[in-house]
Amino acid sequence: MGNKITVEVTVYAAIEKVWKYWNEPAHIMKWCQASPEWHVPAAQNDLKAGGTFTTTMAAKDGSMSFDFGGVYDQVKTNDLIEYTIGDGRKVRIVFTHTGDTTNIVESFDPEETNPRELQQSGWQAILNSFKSYTENN
């Protein structure tokens, strides 16, 4: 599983709002998709070391769906989330905040099926969706 892939975004919102929207299932269901053709009909999140999460991602036309989930390895409120996806890959998310601006850097182990560029663009699209949702709600 070669070098990590990194995506990044700056959200014009205070860390308290960013943290809440990133982690509460009701909000996750509003932003966690890479394109308008997809949605999240279900999300569960037990945000603590050893806690688990599951996000169901589904095509709106009903043609496809899958669960994305894992176990939290480390959680530092408003600063850091590290988790292991169900297939063993690691993800690290760093939140850097100053006033009403929060920078999010997400690094993850690539999977072996899809090209790196596709994985990076998909994760970046989800991050961009988060930025848009958080800044506009």
From TrEMBL:
<feature type="domain" description="Activator of Hsp90 ATPase homologue 1/2-like C-terminal">
    <location>
        <begin position="13"/>
        <end position="134"/>
    </location>
</feature>
<protein>
    <recommendedName>
        <fullName>Activator of Hsp90 ATPase homologue 1/2-like C-terminal domain-containing protein</fullName>
    </recommendedName>
</protein>
<dbReference type="InterPro" id="IPR013538">
    <property type="entry name" value="ASHA1/2-like_C"/>
</dbReference>
<dbReference type="Pfam" id="PF08327">
    <property type="entry name" value="AHSA1"/>
</dbReference>
<dbReference type="InterPro" id="IPR023393">
    <property type="entry name" value="START-like_dom_sf"/>
</dbReference>
<comment type="similarity">
    <text>Belongs to the AHA1 family.</text>
</comment>
